[in-house]
C-alpha cells in the first residue's frame, strides 16, 4: 500500500473507530488524571475494558500490564493508552492474516455466511470489486434466495464490478443454485466464485442444516470446495458475535472473519475478544459503506486506533 493510500485508510479507520476510542480514551483519561494507580483504579480500568467488549481475560491482562511497576504512581493517560495498544496488538497480531487465494483452485470458492443484517451482500460486492481490480475473473452466486432484495443487490454489484452473477427467483433452492453456479464457474474458468447465503440466526436449526446441505452439494462438483468460508460479523452486536462465531464454525467450518460496521459502534473491542477466544483469522474489516471502506486487517493500526493513538506516521 503506498503512503497516500495508507494515510487515507488510516484516516478512515481511526475515524471509523472514533466511538470506541472516544469512549475508552475518555474514560481512561478521567480515571488516571484524578489519582495515583492503586488497586481500586486498576480494578476500575479492568471494568472499563470489559465494558468496551474486550473480554474478561484480555481486560485482566491489560489491567495487570498497566499496573506493573507503576503501583502508587501517577501515570499519564498517554502511558496507559500506549500499554493498551501494545497489549491489544499482541492479541491481534496472530490472527491478522490476509485472505490467500489459491490460484491452483479453479475457481477458488468463497462461501460467505452470517446473520441477517451483518452486511454479507455488501461485503461480497466490495470483495468482488477488489478481486476485479486485481484482474481476476469473478463470478457471484445469489444464494440468499429468501430475500428478493439480496438477489437484486448482488445483481447491481455484478453490473458495477463486471462480475458474472448466477441468480434465480426468490424462494429457489439455495443448494441447487450453488451447484449450478459452481458448475458454471468451472466451465467458464472463473478465478473466484463468491457464494452468498441467506442470513440465518445461529439458533435456527433448520436454516443451519440448509447451510450444511449447501456445503455438501458443492463438494459433489469440487471435493475441495468451499476453499474459504468467511463469516461476516456486525461489530454493533457486541458479545453476540462470540456465539455466532462458535455456531457458524461448527456448521460451516468458518476459515476467516470479516468484521463490518466498526464505524457504527463503541464496541469495537469485540474484535479483540473474538481473536482471544476463537483465534480465527481476521481477513478484512469495514468502517463504512464505500468500496474502499473494506480493507485487509492490520493488527497494529487497529490497536492504535482503538486506543486513540495516531499511527499515520508510524
Q: Flag low-confidence runs.
A: none
Tell me the major beta sheet: 8 strands, mixed
Spatial order of strands in the largest sheet: 3-2-4-1-5-6-7-8
CATH architecture classification of the largest domain: 3-Layer(aba) Sandwich
Radius of gyration: 21 Å
Helix count, DSSP H or I runs of 4 or more residues? 12
CATH class of the largest domain: Alpha Beta
User: What's the SSE pattern?
Assistant: HHHHHEHEHEHEHEHEHEEH
CATH superfamily of the largest domain: P-loop containing nucleotide triphosphate hydrolases
Distance between the termini: 14 Å
The strand count comes to 8
Bin the helical content.
40-55%
Oligomer: single chain
Principal-axis shape: elongated
The class by helix and strand makeup works out as: alpha/beta
Mean pLDDT over the full residue set: 90
Describe this structure in words.
- The protein has 314 residues and is of the alpha/beta class.
- The protein folds into two domains: 3-95, Four Helix Bundle (Hemerythrin (Met), subunit A), CATH 1.20.120.140; 108-297, Rossmann fold (3-Layer(aba) Sandwich), CATH 3.40.50.
- The protein has helices spanning 3-16, 18-34, 39-51, 56-67, 77-92, 120-133, 148-161, 174-187, 205-221, 240-252, 270-278, 299-307; strands at 108-113, 138-141, 164-166, 192-195, 228-234, 256-260, 282-286, 294-296.
- The chain has an eight-stranded mixed sheet, sandwiched between helices.
- Helix 7 links the parallel strand 2 (138-141) and strand 3.
- Helix 1 (3-16) packs across helix 12, helix 2 (18-34) packs antiparallel against helix 3 (39-51) and helix 8 (174-187) packs parallel to helix 9 (205-221).
- The longest helix has 17 residues, at 18-34.
- The chain is elongated and about 70 Å long.
- The model has no long low-confidence stretch (mean pLDDT 90).
